[in-house]
Write a structure and sequence with these properties.
The protein is α+β, with helices and mostly antiparallel strands and 336 residues long. The chain has one domain (2-333): Deoxyribonuclease I, Chain A (4-Layer Sandwich). Helix content is 25%, strand content 25%. It contains 7 helices and 17 strands. The chain has a 6-stranded mixed beta sheet, with helices on one face. Strands 5-10-11-12-15 form a 5-stranded mixed beta sheet, with helices on one face. The protein has a two-stranded antiparallel sheet with strand order 6-7. The longest helix is centred in the middle third of the chain and has 32 residues, at 177-208.
C-alpha cells in the first residue's frame, strides 16, 4: 500500500465560490502560475505518485457554499484519478482543510476521532498545559485539528492514520526585533504544545497496539531554526518519540539530519525569498509509521523535482512538481 502526504499551495483557489473547477488562464494564488497551469500540474503529480491514499494538506475550503469532499471528488473525476473518494475530518476556518483522497477499490476509510482524556482531549477541543513554566495552565487549541481516520484494507487489516498541519513558527506583523523575538518564542511554545498533544495521542494508539501512520506538514524538523536550542528539541522529535525505547518511536528516515558539514540534506519544500532573490529549501513534510509497520521494511520517497532522479528524468513531471505547489509529495510503500 502506498500512502502519501502532499501540501497543495492554495488548492482552494482553483475552485469558484460554488465549488466549480476554474480551468482558465487567470492567475492562481500560486505566484507566477495560471489556474489552468497549476490545475494541470496537479493532475500530473497525483497521477505520477499514484498513492492508494493521499493526505492533502491545504485542501479546498469547506463552508456553506462549497464542500471539501465534493471539490476533491470533482478534481479526481476531472483527471480520471483512481483516488476518487474524499474524506474530511473537522473543518477549520483557515481555508486550508486537512483531507484524504483515496482509492475505494483498495481501501475503505472512516473519520474516527478518538475521544481522548483530560490530558489528551479530542483534537477539536482544547488542551490545558503550562506553556511558559509559570505554574499556570494555558489553553491551547488546534487551528487545524488533525484528521483521525481508520483505513481498512481488502484483507481486513486496519491502520489508524493521523493527518496533521502543525502550527507554523513564522513571525507576522512584528514591528521591531524585540517584538519579533517575543512572537517567535510564543509561536514556538504553541507549536511545541500542539506536538505534545499529538504525541500523547500517539501513545494512546501505541498502547492499544494498533498500526499507526502520522503524516503531514509539521512546519518543523531537527535543527530547522535557532529556537530549538532554547527549547531543547524540535516538535517533530517530540512526536516521533526521540529518546524513548524503539518500540515507542515512530519511523521516517528523513527525521534525522545527516551529520557532516558537506552532507546534503533532504527537503520537501522550496520557497522564494524576495529579499535574497533566491530559493531556499526545508524539510517539513513527513510520513511517520509505527514499528509494527516496519516489518518488512517500508520504502519512503520524496518526490523532489531536482533531488529525485526518477522525477528529474521526466521533464513533464519535473515541471509539474515545480508548478503545482511549493511543497513536494512524500510517500511510503508499506508491504501488506
Amino acid at each position: 500500500m502506498r500512502i502519501a502526504t502532499y501540501n497543495v499551495e492554495w488548492f482552494t483557489s482553483l475552485f469558484d465560490r460554488r465549488g466549480r473547477i476554474l480551468d482558465d488562464n487567470e492567475r492562481s494564488a500560486r505566484y507566477g502560475v495560471s489556474r489552468a497551469e497549476q490545475l494541470g500540474a496537479l493532475g500530473i503529480v497525483f497521477s505520477a505518485v499514484d498513492a492508494d491514499v493521499f493526505l492533502i494538506v491545504e485542501a479546498p475550503d469547506d463552508n456553506d457554499h462549497h464542500k471539501t469532499v465534493a471539490q476533491l471528488e470533482s478534481f479526481a473525476a476531472w483527471f480520471g484519478l483512481r483516488q476518487r473518494r474524499a474524506l474530511i475530518g473537522f473543518p477549520n476556518d483557515t481555508q486550508q482543510e486537512i483531507a484524504l483522497l483515496y482509492d475505494p477499490d483498495v481501501v475503505s476509510v472512516v473519520h474516527d476521532p478518538m475521544e481522548g482524556s483530560a490530558d489528551c482531549p479530542r483534537f477539536d477541543q482544547s488542551l490545558r498545559i503550562d506553556l511558559d513554566i509559570d505554574d499556570r495552565l494555558d489553553v491551547v487549541t488546534m487551528g487545524k485539528p488533525p484528521l483521525e481516520a481508520v483505513l481498512t484494507l481488502k484483507s481486513g487489516r486496519q491502520i489508524r492514520l493521523i493527518g496533521v498541519h502543525i502550527k507554523s513558527k513564522a513571525q507576522h506583523g512584528a514591528l521591531d526585533p524585540a517584538a519579533e523575538l517575543r512572537q517567535a518564542i510564543e509561536n514556538r511554545r504553541k507549536q511545541l504544545a500542539q506536538c505534545i498533544w499529538l504525541r500523547r495521542r500517539v501513545d494512546q494508539v501505541l498502547d492499544m497496539g494498533e498500526p499507526l501512520v502520522v503524516l503531514g506538514d509539521f512546519n518543523d524538523g531537527p535543527g530547522l531554526d535557532e529556537y530549538e536550542r532554547l527549547f531543547g528539541r524540535s516538535g517533530l522529535e517530540i512526536v516521533v518519540g526521540e529518546g524513548l525505547p524503539p518500540e515507542r518511536r515512530l519511523r521516517d528516515p528523513h527525521v534525522r539530519l545527516r551529520r557532516g558539514t558537506m552532507a546534503a540534506q533532504p527537503s520537501t519544500a522550496r520557497f522564494y525569498l524576495k529579499d535574497a532573490g533566491q530559493y531556499f529549501s526545508a524539510m517539513l513534510d513527513f510520513v511517520l509509521v509505527s514499528p509494527d509497520l516496519c516489518l518488512p521494511a517500508p520504502a519512503w520517497r520524496i518526490w523532489h523535482p531536482f533531488d529525485d532522479p526518477g522525477c528529474y528524468r521526466v521533464p513533464e513531471l519535473r515541471e509539474a512538481l515545480v508548478q503545482a505547489s511549493d511543497h513536494f509529495p512524500v510517500s511510503v510503500d508499506i508491504p501488506t
